[in-house]
Specification:
By secondary structure, the protein is an alpha/beta fold. Helices cover about 40% and strands about 15% of the residues. It contains 10 helices and 8 strands. The radius of gyration is 17 Å and the shape is globular.
């Protein structure tokens, strides 16, 4: 790529070139945890969620205690649905599995290797970074992340009541980075309008999707929240 080449819309937001930059980053992210991944019907539900989300969504395969061999098997299965549906498969932390399964991206956490190091070994993948402060959002942008997941925004069952960081936290991150910001933590469909008005690019949910009786309906509700606002916000 020459210095004179014009950047595409996503590349223009970040100070690096990503080979996958022509792909629009998903707006709705369905994030798993260990308790979700070990459910007997997880694979079937995950496929249903991916088909419902389509290219506007991503399923983040995240688990800390599930054996790597099991994660690899799940990733290989979900990679088939990724190709069929257009929904992204994003591995949490495990760059090796992401590369082996041809996932679209990796979500890096505070326990992962740094964004800059990940970029050197995963040049074909989109990279997200989990951030909890404006400083870490700026660092992620400098190091070459494609998006940041910021949380937790609202109260959740897994955090102390009243401990959500709120909209002021989101606004501080939006002021700190030009990267797409994905809000996570107690985010429900009725929160989408306010988050988008603030400038948030997309939302992520765990129990809001996987804890619902009908996960397909749940993701449709999140997607519909964008549709009722007149299309994706930039």
């Amino acid at each position: 790529m020459s210095d004179a080449a014009a950047p595409d819309p996503i590349d223009a937001k970040a100070p690096h070139f990503s080979p996958a930059a022509s792909l629009e980053i998903p707006r709705v992210h369905a994030v798993t945890d260990d308790t979700i991944v070990v459910r007997p019907n997880f694979l079937e539900r995950a496929r249903t969620v991916m088909r419902a989300l389509g290219p506007l969504g991503a399923v983040h395969l995240r688990a800390h205690i599930v054996p790597a061999a099991r994660l690899y098997t799940l990733a290989m299965e979900l990679a088939i649905t990724q190709r069929e549906s257009g929904c992204w498969l994003v591995m949490n932390d495990r760059i090796d599995i992401a590369l082996a399964a041809s996932a679209r991206g990796v979500q890096l956490t505070s326990r992962s290797m740094g964004v800059a190091d990940a970029r050197t070994i995963a040049s074909t993948l989109m990279l997200g970074a989990s951030v909890h402060a404006p400083e870490s959002a700026r660092a992620a942008e400098t190091d070459g992340a494609d998006w940041v997941v910021a949380g937790h925004v609202f109260d959740t069952k897994s955090h102390t009541e009243g401990n959500g960081r709120g909209m002021s936290f989101i606004q501080s991150l939006l002021a700190a980075t030009q990267l797409p910001v994905i809000a996570i933590g107690g985010v429900k469909p009725h929160h989408v309008a306010a988050l988008r008005d603030a400038g948030v690019y997309g939302v992520a949910a765990i129990t809001g999707i996987w804890g619902a009786e009908n996960a397909e309906r749940a993701v449709t509700d999140y997607l519909s929240a964008y549709d009722t606002r007149g299309g994706p916000a930039d």
